[in-house]
Amino acid sequence: MIKFSDKHLNPSPSTKIVLFNKPFNVLTQFTDVTGRQTLKDYIPIPGIYAAGRLDRDSEGLLILTNDGKLQSKLTDPKHKTSKTYWVQVEGIPDESKLEQLRHGVELKDGMTRPGKVTLIPEPTIWARTPPVRFRQSIPTRWLSITISEGKNRQVRRMTAHIGYPTLRLIRYRIGNWTLDGIDNGHYIEL
After folding, report:
1. What DSSP string runs through the chain?
2. Out of 22-26, 147-151, 169-173, least confident range
3. Could you list the active site residues?
4. What is the pLDDT of residues 92-144, one digit of tens each?
5. Where is pLDDT greater, at 2 or 67?
6. Core-most of 24, 40, 55, 60, by most CB within 10 Å?
C-alpha cells in the first residue's frame, strides 16, 4: 500500500517516518503554552518532527521524521516535492479561472509556480468538527490542486485570488505518500 519509491529519498535503517492524518484545529507542533491541541495529543513517538507545516485550520497528511535530510528533501522548494490538496471552494469556478491557477497567479509574495488543477467529485471523507459553515444560496465545488512549493497559506490565497474562497482544505498527498488507509486523527509508522 505505502512504499518508499522516490529515488531521491534514501532513508537510513534508523530513520523513523510517520504519516499522520491531522484533524482540523490541531497545531503542527508538539507544545502550545495556551493549551490548544498539538501533535502530542495524537502521536506518542519521541524524537520526530513535522516535515513542513499544515495550518491549524487545514486537515490531512503530515509527515513526521527524525531524519533532518529527509525533512529538507520534503520541504525545501529546490527539491520541488509535489503535494496534492483536496479543496472545497465557495462557488463553482469556470475553466478560465482554473486556467489561471494552472499557469500560476501573482500573490503579494510573488508569482506561484503553475499548478495541476482539476474539478473532482466530493471525496468520501470524514466529517469535520466543527462542520464547515455554508451559505445556502451559494453552491460549493471540490478541486484537486497539486503544487510543488509551499508559500504560507498558498492554496487558500490562490483560490481567493480567483474569487473562490476555500471552505475546507485537506492535504491528500506529499510525494508518493497519501492519506489512503489512515483515519483522521490516526497515524501509521513506516
Report:
1. ------TT----TT--EEEEEEPTT--SSS--TT----GGGT---TT-EESS---TT-EEEEEEES-HHHHHHHH-GGG---EEEEEEEES---HHHHHHHHH--EETTEEPPP-EEEEEPPP--PPPSSPPP--TTS-EEEEEEEES---TTHHHHHHHHTT--EEEEEEEEETTEE-TT--TT-EEE-
2. 147-151
3. 55
4. 999 999 999 999 999 999 999 999 999 999 999 999 988 888 788 899 999 99
5. 67
6. 60
Distance CA 101, CA 161 (A): 9
Using pLDDT thresholds of 50, 70 and 90, give the confidence band for residue 2.
very low
How far is 76 from 97, CA to CA, in rounded Å?
28
Q: Please state, in angstroms and rounded to a whole number, the distance separating the CA atoms of residues 43 and 6.
A: 25
Q: Is 185 left (phi over 0), alpha (psi -120 to 50) or beta?
A: left
Q: What is the pTM of this model?
A: 0.91
Mean pLDDT of 46-65: 96
Three cell numbers written together for 134: 455554508
- 84 burial via Cβ count (<10 Å: 0-12, 13-18, 19+): buried
Distances (CA, A) of 172 to 43, 62, 76, 111: 19, 9, 19, 24
Query: Residue 112: which of 80, 64, 141 has the closest Cα?
Result: 80
Distance separating alpha carbons of residues 99 and 94, to the nearest angstrom: 9
